[in-house]
Amino acid sequence: MTRKKTDTIAVRTGIGTDTQHHAVVPPLYLSTNYRFPAFGDVPTYDYARGGNPTRAQLEQALTELEGGAGAVVTNCGMAAINLVLSLLDAGDHIVAPHDCYGGTYRLLDSRAKQGIWQVNFVDQSDNDALTHALAKQPKLVLVETPSNPLLRVVDIADICQKAHEAGALVVVDNTFLSPALQQPFSLGADIVVHSTTKFINGHSDIVGGAVVAKTPELAETLAWWGNCLGATGNAFDSYMTLRGLRTLGARVKQHQQNTQAVLAYLQTVPAVRQLYYPGLSTHPAMKSPPVSSLGLVVCSASSLRPIKLGSCALLRGCLYLRLLSHWGAWKAW
Ligand SMILES: Cc1ncc(COP(=O)(O)O)c(C=O)c1O
Hints:
By secondary structure, this protein is of the alpha/beta class. Helices cover 36% and strands 13% of the residues. It has two domains: 3-245, Aspartate Aminotransferase, domain 2, CATH 3.40.640; 249-316, Aspartate Aminotransferase, domain 1 (Alpha-Beta Complex). Helix 2 (53-66) runs parallel beside helix 9 (235-245).
């Protein structure tokens, strides 16, 4: 999918779909219930946990953007990851990145300690470690690239090929690049997850998530589990996310420009010991082939020397930057 097409899908999402009043921006459906036309005649939507027209519009948009067959919008990114884990049976084996998002690590590790499944955290850029982990015949391989927070990059296509040979499903957390910059299905993934809280919504005013499936069968199973678990997202947050999504292409372009400016500046600051940005020759990701195809990755992180003194001094000197546990929005704080 070309960049232009992705931007166009995002901009046009839901526009002109209101057949009743021809509203340009589609309406928000908050209703919990929907009337059955007659006994036994089940409508498309009956109860909002199972389905909602506004949420369905966001699911359709994310499905199109990722190039999948169906999606489930969830109430946060962790709910999306938890939903995918419903595909596992007791005792199944999972391979996950050693540097995945902390919340993902916590969920996988805590459930493993309860004996629900077995998890192997590996450096997926280390071929031997990956081969060793795949020899245990995992049911699911989770990939997060770039990873949060160190922005390490792995080769999705290569991992998919090896994981499929071992009989595993591959789930890619695409939160960091968003479909504007990376479409994991085209690289062989089976499932894509998002924390839509970040770039997809982009306005720091909702917490949300999504699971997109490559096949209709997987999409149906995930929708069943989404309803069963109560993991689905609410209508208002879906409406807000649709609004944010329409400007994804424009925001990502601006983030890329801003990142270059911040990088150029931070490279001149002596207190900055290391910059974690996959486009820099000092970043381990540069050894990995896919980084060149990503375009410019959006975020960077730095560690400061000496850490406490340096970070305070730098932050005190900033007019508009504050310490936050969030990224992917239109503003710095
Ligand atoms: C890569 C990644 N995946 C998943 C999540 C979880 O998302 P949420 O906070 O929306 O539950 C996060 C949160 O920061 C994340 O960075």
